[in-house]
Amino acid sequence: MERSLPPDPGKDGRPGNPLNHGLGPYLHELGRFESTQELHKSDLYGRLQPQIDRTLKYVLTESYSHDFSSSVRRSIRATSWNIERGIELEGIIEVLATHPVISESDLFILTELDYGMARSGNRKVPTEIARALKLNYAFAPSYLNLQKGSGLESLAEGQNELGIHGNAVFSRHPLTNTASVQLPNGKDKMRGNEKRLGSQAGVVAVVDHPLGSFQAVSVHLDAHSTQKHRMRQMQLILENLKARAPHLPALIGGDWNTSTFNSRNAFFTIMGYNRRVLMGIRNVIRNHYPHPDRWFERHLFRALEREGYQYKNLNAPGVCTLHYDINDLAANGRMADWIPNWCFWFINWALERNNGRCSFKLDWFAGKGIEPSEKFPPAVISDVHRPDLMLSDHDPIVLDFVPAAKTRSPDS
């Protein structure tokens, strides 16, 4: 007997929330397909596609901030952080609320937020953050996950209630004109051990700040892709900003996965490691991983500059935001889903020359029509983790800025 389709959340005349999609009974069946092409040819996907599209294209917005007077300063502070699903949500909220630097932020650009995923306790991460900190937010789904995750995440207790994962912008000030910018995939998300529907999506919003309105973007570029693919994803963000409100200043933040690698598959990744060994491990760790814009990821950064965006003065130069340790079982577990086991011997051998560790600069700000504040230079905040607990595999980054026109004001 054929099961009935999930109801349209807005069918009864109420606005509804398409993220409460009712697709749960079908996720296991959808996960049986081995490629996106095979999935799209199926009758099951044909029947479910309208609801899947409604879910993945929706931007969830809610307002919990109504008192703006206390947060008005002479500059705008933004924090960008990949919070690794929100698995350590209590600790993350505590940092956002109490850290002496981060808690003063007007704007939080967060990536990797779960919404009904078993690995993060089936919590609605963006909603809980906004409620706890009394913020307005816009959350854009990237994926509808058909499985619990990769590596150790696949062992999480329970099942996904909604299986949604995405990115968000949070603000103490009103957010308007929100949108989701869906980006092309760097690989088929239905192949491999973590099957997903959808693609990375940037969430865009206009922030109505007392110092001037500006567009804010939270974007997570594909890790398992090529350097040029990441550049193309960023170009789509820039095209969207130009089409939506070209007269407004813009700030783009997030995890851009500027690892310097072509990570589309294991073969290209290992060839990349071979090349870096020949270049000298310590040379690459010192001169390329902290400065991906110098060579390996230069196309992405040159694309930003061609469109009038600056980034060099909006980021702490040469300070990395993700740190890899060969003893990190969780990270190795995620990598093992797409890199063969024999490759770890090679990676570990190469990193032995650097005490088994290396760091990457993956998280960035770029802006147009804005200037950094002279009083507080851009920073990477590394003291958010406890000795016994990493809240995320990334460090947050912070920027104080003003709209460019305000820099000429005597009061700024």
Write a brief structural summary.
The protein is an alpha+beta fold.
Can you put this structure into words, describing what you see?
- Strands 1, 2, 3, 4, 5, 7, 14, 15 and 16 form a 9-stranded mixed sheet that branches. A 5-stranded mixed sheet has the order 6-8-9-10-13, covered by helices on one side. It has a two-stranded antiparallel ribbon with strand order 11-12.
- The protein has a domain of 273 residues: 4-Layer Sandwich (Deoxyribonuclease I, Chain A).
- Helices cover 27% and strands 24% of the residues.
- It has 412 residues and is an alpha+beta fold.
What is the arithmetic mean of pLDDT? 90
**Alpha-carbon Rg, integer:** 21 Å
Helix- and strand-based class? alpha+beta
Portion in helices: 25-40%
- Contiguous uncertain segments of 5+ residues: 10-14, 407-412
User: Briefly, what CATH class of one domain?
Assistant: Alpha Beta
Q: What's the CATH architecture of one domain?
A: 4-Layer Sandwich
Q: Give the beta-strand count.
A: 16
